[in-house]
Design a protein that fits this description.
globular, DUF6912, alpha+beta, 6 helices, seven-stranded antiparallel beta sheet
């Protein structure tokens, strides 16, 4: 099963050093039955893009929680055994309405990471603004200074993540 794990460049450095993503349980995103039902007209590629986009939104939350992290969203794609991913059952897990959310029962070894997806340097100003506006957008505040907080957060999704092979990921940490 292909899963998408939200991260940051700071967290990626720790993952690279530890040679695994952990500890479990881990929140990830994948093509779930709920996502398939919601996006009934989508083919597998579109569904995977939707799951990766959900992970990118979760990466933005990680950036908002860590002001010292470089302002670039990071998503790690991994191939894991199907039995290691489960759809959350509790209301707290599903409160976000994230149809792609899964919980992983075990750490993900580096060797199972298929690729990394990272914002380009040109996205940094918009990602920084979105991370700063996220608390106001979550609170339903329509005003973050002179800008609409929700619009600012949504603006981050206008940037496509760049694809990196796993052997290229350490170069992002220099």
């Amino acid at each position: 099963m292909r899963v998408y794990l939200p991260s940051t460049l700071t967290l990626l450095a720790g993952v690279h050093a530890a040679r695994e993503i952990g500890p479990a349980p881990l929140a990830a995103h994948a093509v779930t039955p709920a996502l398939r039902e919601w996006y009934a007209g989508g083919d597998l590629e579109e569904l995977e893009y939707a799951a990766m986009s959900a992970a990118a939104r979760a990466s933005l939350r990680l950036l908002a929680a860590d002001p010292s992290a470089p302002r670039r969203r990071v998503v790690l794609a991994a191939e894991i055994p199907d039995d290691q991913a489960a759809r959350p059952r509790g209301d707290a897990d599903l409160a976000t309405g994230d149809r792609a959310l899964v919980r992983l029962a075990a750490p993900v070894p580096w060797k199972l990471i298929a690729s990394g997806h990272v914002d380009g340097p040109d996205a940094v100003p918009d990602i920084a603004a979105a991370a700063d506006a996220l608390p106001a957008a979550d609170a339903g505040d329509d005003d973050a200074g002179d800008d609409d907080a929700g619009f600012t957060v949504d603006g981050a999704e206008g940037h496509d993540l760049l694809w990196y092979a796993t052997q290229e990921l350490p170069h992002l940490l220099d």
